Amino acid sequence: MLSQAARSSRARAPRCITSSRYASHGAPHYNEPSGHLFGEKPLKPGEKRVKEPWENIWYVGIYGSMAVAAVLLYYKPDTSIQTWALKEARRRMEERGEPFEYKPDTPPPASS
């Protein structure tokens, strides 16, 4: 014979089917497509487009951040392993008294 808990769980429907949706607020709301670019109707001849208040802030923000990024990248310190190795090799060769620059002893003979 089944226990009381087993019988009651069999008798009721699963919660996911019977529960109501608390976070839904009806059908989705969106702007119907109008067929115009960005939803703006074409201007009549002689009319000037009026900017929205956020547009200038967006332009200053996006292009200003690009300019700051370009300056920061230009002045970024060189942290490559090749640069470090070149400085280290130069320092060690100078400590030993060896010349760092390559100078060939004699030019190769010209073949005629």
List the helices and strands and how they pair.
Blueprint lengths: L3 H8 L3 H4 L34 H22 L6 H16 L16
Structure summary:
With 112 residues, the protein is an all-alpha fold. Helix content is 45%, strand content 0%.
Walk me through this protein's architecture.
It is found in: Mitochondrion inner membrane. InterPro entries: NADH_UbQ_OxRdtase_ESSS_su. Pfam families: ESSS (PF10183). It is a single-pass membrane protein. The chain crosses the membrane at residues 57-75. This protein has a domain at 53-93. Helices cover 45% and strands 0% of the residues. It has helices spanning 4-11, 15-18, 53-74, 81-96. It starts with a helix and ends in a 16-residue tail after the last helix. The model has no long low-confidence stretch (mean pLDDT 81). The chain contains four helices and no strands. With 112 residues, it is mostly helical. The relative contact order is 0.04.
Residue ranges: pLDDT <50 for 5 or more in a row?
Answer: none
Helix and strand pattern: HHHH
* Helix coverage percent: 40-55%
How confident is the prediction overall: mean pLDDT? 81
Task: Using brief descriptors, characterize the structure shown.
single chain, 112 residues, mainly alpha
